[in-house]
Amino acid sequence: MVSISKNNQKQQLLSKIATNDGHGENSPYFDGWKAYANNPFHLTDNPNGVIQMGLAENQLCFDLIQEWVVNNPKASICTVEGAENFQDIAIFQDYHGLPEFRQAVARFMEKVRGDRVTFDPNRIVMSGGATGAHEMLAFCLADPGDAFLVPTPYYPGFDRDLRWRTGVQLFPVVCESCNDFKVTKKALEEAYEKAQQSNIKIKGLLINNPSNPLGTLLDKDTLRDIVTFINSKNIHLVCDEIYAATVFDQPRFISVSEIVEDMIECNKDLIHIVYSLSKDLGFPGFRVGIVYSYNDTVVSIARKMSSFGLVSTQTQHLLASMLSDEIFIDKFIAESSERLGERQGMFTKGLAEVGISTLKSNAGLFFWMDLRRLLKEATFDGELELWRIIINEVKLNVSPGCSFHCSEPGWFRVCFANMDDETMRIALKRISYFVLQPKGLNNIAAIKKQCSRRKLQISLSFRRLDHEFMNSPAHSPMNSPLVRT
Ligand SMILES: Cc1ncc(COP(=O)(O)O)c(C=O)c1O
User: Fold this and answer.
1) Are residues 120 and 267 located together in one domain of the fold?
2) Is 279 a catalytic residue?
3) Pocket mutation for ligand 1, best pick of 217, 241, 242 (most atoms within 8 Å of C-beta)
4) Which residue in 24, 124, 201, 296 is deepest, having the highest Cβ count within 10 Å?
């Protein structure tokens, strides 16, 4: 921690933006990552460490990617087969991007949306991940002090991406569990009204479909309501569709692009899509972000701004080749969605067996876990207290709902696609064991005492714990404190 005087000194020397808290690094969301970084779980090297379940990464299909890379050495410029392209690629620096890259990305975006819409490669603007895309759009669409409405709960990174360096604000549209956190006309109107009363100028609405953290999709009626709403207020609509290909069950994904093509009374100049290859392909390290705007001026100014966050030409070259391999891409999309569905199903079913419910979802790399009944008190302090136990004692880094601006305490986001099957099994057992404690969940001291009496520490051998758990008479949903309450 930097002391206040040091901080002051620093603030005289450095800019206000650079030294303020806008990055959000001090939130519980990132604290969980730190807990993991200090003691990372490893199946053999550190089996008692913290399991990372706070990272929305898609690692379930890397075998397919690796196979493709091995079979396509010409796609890389650092192989014998591809080296002849090295110079051309290394010196290319046009901020429009390689034409074959834009073409391939546009085609991939169409495929992911079931070929129901078309995308014009000339409207594809590159950015450093969706992170860069959001900031770039905020710079293009709003001035410092202006605000975007955003339905809660929402991805915590939006606070950093849209607000930090731009001075733009986010204004919550409060969604609630009583209707599965649906975005309603009423909630939108109320938020807009409230902002007006506070003299905050609303420049747009930001939605994320499929939703992080909910893993749910917006249905056609809701999307039409949203498009009608932004048209009636003459404000922008930014749709983050970064999880478009993570859908693994019905209903199918409906992109805002479908709605826009359908609705006659829509001003297309207000519609902008943010996309990225970080989730659907599982390449967050490649930093491939896309702004797709229907507004010509926004395309043109965003392209100029993209100079600050271009995608490396080497990456463009490789991806142009990979994404153009339609047979591979079709197989990848189908297989990825199947594996995600299987993993999500296994995990949520396992939790249901010990009485933990989750919001019904059919997309994403995470689900929204309901631990409201485990709170000592129904407050955000109560939520953080439970979260600390889960991090420090159960050793799972799940993310508390408050970091997603959820309006109700007791919800947690659990990521399930960034680990192998064995790690998932252990994570499930840890949480099940924790929930099935006969003394009740809030009594972690009692759990520890009980464990040490049996010469077993929760954080000791999970091999042993697995055994204990499976053979315990408590291993029955009927004995779960959750089922009992
Ligand atoms: C909804 C959403 N938008 C944007 C991002 C940032 O993605 P990228 O890695 O492409 O910057 C994330 C990452 O978790 C996300 O969940």
Assistant:
1) yes
2) yes
3) 242
4) 124
Question: Which of 203, 235, 259, 279 is an active site residue?
Answer: 279
Distance 130 CA to ligand 1 centre (A): 5
In a domain, 115, yes or no: yes
Are residues 96 and 56 part of one domain? no
Ligand 1 pocket, 98 CB below 6 A?
A: no
Active-site option among 31, 146, 159, 240: 240
Indicate if ligand 1 lies below 6 Å from the C-beta of 399: no
Ligand 1 pocket residue status of 289, Cβ below 6 Å: yes
Cα–Cα dist 338/313, whole Å: 32
Report yes or no on 74 lying in a domain. Answer: no
**Domain of residue 180, residue span:** 92-324
CATH number (domain holding residue 274):
3.40.640.10
Residue-wise pLDDT for 7-66, tens only, equals 556 557 999 899 888 887 777 667 788 889 999 999 999 999 999 999 999 999 999 999
- Quick check: bond before 213 cis, omega within 30? yes
Nearest to 272 by CA among 319, 324, 220, 236: 236
Q: Is 29 a residue of the active site?
A: no
Question: pTM of the entire structure?
Answer: 0.89
> Is residue 73, in this structure, part of any structural domain at all?
no
Query: Rounded to whole angstroms, how far apart are CA atoms 408 and 151?
Result: 14
